[in-house]
């Protein structure tokens, strides 16, 4: 993140027709900071690094790091004000919008190739309604403060700029083309509690996840194995990243050099992860599987579970939503590639790969299972047996 100079309004005001500059100058004014090179140069740079998505990866890391900075500031306010015990969720709303605007800004500034498509939860409809002025003002201030404090860009959003940035590239994803997939704050309940959450960003190319980054501001950098989300190490803030065919890395969110993520090779009795919230995953079902595997659960919020699994803190992640819940692609896209590029496997409860090409939802069978290649066959059998038993018990009622 580079130091800022005088800040320009964003988006820039339109030029009066009488003095409209040349198209090259207009392009420069629209993007006051130096842009990346031509697509051809980008391709050469990417090939030199051996990663065909090198430019996108760098942009994605920068985007989630900046968004995480904004979320950290809001979470600190929430924890200090004790708001998490009340029904007032507006700070989360402000952070959700703020995170989306910053990610979208960075991607548009740093990745210049092709149309911009973003699959994410927020749009501007609610913010355009009467009574939303105050929250819009808060979002605008917070976004501008984050940009200015980090010195990341030389711009300042107007309120109208904020509204149009939220809708920029709004998309439902799908099987063709490139789509960014964002979870602005994954693990909202953990965020409110002052616990784990993640900013999760992935890139789909022709329906496949080709890149994923997970910023986990509260995840310890050392292993959390058997510690329910905490570790004895002091340093927190982990940034996981992975590109298809290139492996996964973990580094500290404040910029220490990346390390390769260990491949998953923990023994059968290593701990396993599941959702903190029992409303999000059936703890009774995972409990019966854990008995087979002699593994106690570690309950942490968000896709931080995928990151922790990828670096070998545990060997299994099980997630069994209650009947009728449809999993969204942004809850799994980034996390799943971090695990698969670390040598793990992520499937549904039928053993099928997750299919991210069907739009905003995953079309999957009963649940998500992530583990290493050695454990998957026996785990899948344990899961299917446990589901069968649960269904039989339910049919007897
Ligand atoms: N009923 C139900 N069943 C299953 N899943 C649900 C349900 N409700 C929500 N969600 C989604 O769960 C996301 C949070 O992820 P986790 O369940 O891993 O984290 S947590 O332990 O619940 O905090 C959470 O992501 P965020 O909304 O981004 O926090 C939701 O997308
Ligand atoms: Mg989520």
TrEMBL record:
GO terms for biological process: phosphatidylinositol phosphate biosynthetic process; sulfate assimilation. Its cofactor is Mg(2+). InterPro entries: DPNP (IPR006239), Inositol_monoP_superfamily (IPR051090), Inositol_monophosphatase-like (IPR000760), Inositol_monophosphatase_CS (IPR020550). It catalyses: adenosine 2',5'-bisphosphate + H2O = AMP + phosphate; 3'-phosphoadenylyl sulfate + H2O = adenosine 5'-phosphosulfate + phosphate; adenosine 3',5'-bisphosphate + H2O = AMP + phosphate. GO terms for molecular function: 3'(2'),5'-bisphosphate nucleotidase activity; metal ion binding. Pfam families: Inositol_P. It is an enzyme of class 3 (hydrolase). Its EC number is 3.1.3.7. Mg(2+) binds at residues 121, 183, 185-186, 331. Keywords: Hydrolase, Magnesium, Metal-binding, Signal. NCBIfam families: bisphos_HAL2. Belongs to the inositol monophosphatase superfamily. This is 3'(2'),5'-bisphosphate nucleotidase. It comes from Panicum virgatum.
